[in-house]
Amino acid sequence: AQTVTQSQPEMSVQEAETVTLSCTYDTSENNYYLFWYKQPPSRQMILVIRQEAYKQQNATENRFSVNFQKAAKSFSLKISDSQLGDTAMYFCAFMKPGGSEKLVFGKGTKLTVNP
Amino acid sequence: KAGVTQTPRYLIKTRGQQVTLSCSPISGHRSVSWYQQTPGQGLQFLFEYFSETQRNKGNFPGRFSGRQFSNSRSEMNVSTLELGDSALYLCASSLRRAVRTGELFFGEGSRLTVL
User: Which residues, listed in sequence order, are joined to residue B21 by a DSSP beta bridge?
Assistant: First the structure.
C-alpha cells in the first residue's frame, strides 16, 4: 500500500519570504500522480499543483513549484513570495494510475504566513 | 458554476444513532468520492462512486455505506454511531476523463459530532 509522509506538522514564514514543505512517499508503482492540496481555514480544499511521475520536469504554478525526486521518492513544495492568503493546511497526496481516483494523503503541514 | 455542495454543514448526534450526509457534485461531474478527516488519522478515503456504481472502498467498517443517484448526487450513511465517528466528512467530485488529471474538487464538508 502507498504511504505519504509529511514530516513538518507546522511551519511559519514571514510574508514575502520563501518556504519549502517536505513530502516523501512510498510506492512500488513506476507511474503515478502526486499533488499538493491546500485547505484554508474555511476548509474547502483546493488543488495547488500536480506532478506526473513520468515527467522529469518539475511542475510550476505561479509562485508554487515542486522539487520532484523520483528515486528518492520525495516531492517538496516551494512557495515563493509568501502571502497572508497562503496560510492553510497543506496536504501532499498520491494517486496511482488505474480505474480509481483514490487519493492517499499525508497528515498535512500547517503553514502560517506572518505579516 | 456552483461548486460541490454538502449538506448538512454541521450536525450533532448521539451514540447509536445513524446519520445521512449528502453531496451534490459540480454540474457535469460524474465521479464522487468521500473522505473522513480527523485530527488523529488525517484524511482517509471512504468510497468512490461513478455512474451509480461503487468503484473503490476504503478500510472502514460496514456501518459506513454510500450510494450515488442517476443525477450523480451522492449520499453516505453511518449507522450505529460511535464517538470515534466524530469527524469532518469531505465529498469530492471530478470529471473522470479518460486521461485523468487527478484533480478533485472538494466541498466544505459536513462536521459530525457524536456525543
Answer: B76
Rounded Cα gap, residues B115 and B112, in angstroms: 10
Residue range B30-75, pLDDT digits in tens: 999 999 999 989 999 999 999 899 999 999 999 999 999 999 999 9
C-alpha cell at A101: 481516483
- The pLDDT, as a whole number, for residue A109 is 97
- Residue identified by cell 468510497 is B47
Q: Are B107 and B89 in contact (CB under 8 A)?
A: no
Residues of A with CB under 8 A from a CB of B: 33, 35, 37, 42-47, 50, 91, 95, 97, 99-108
CA distance, residue B24 to nearest chain A CA (Å):
15
A59-to-A54, A69, A108, A114, B67 alpha-carbon distances in Å:
12, 12, 20, 26, 36
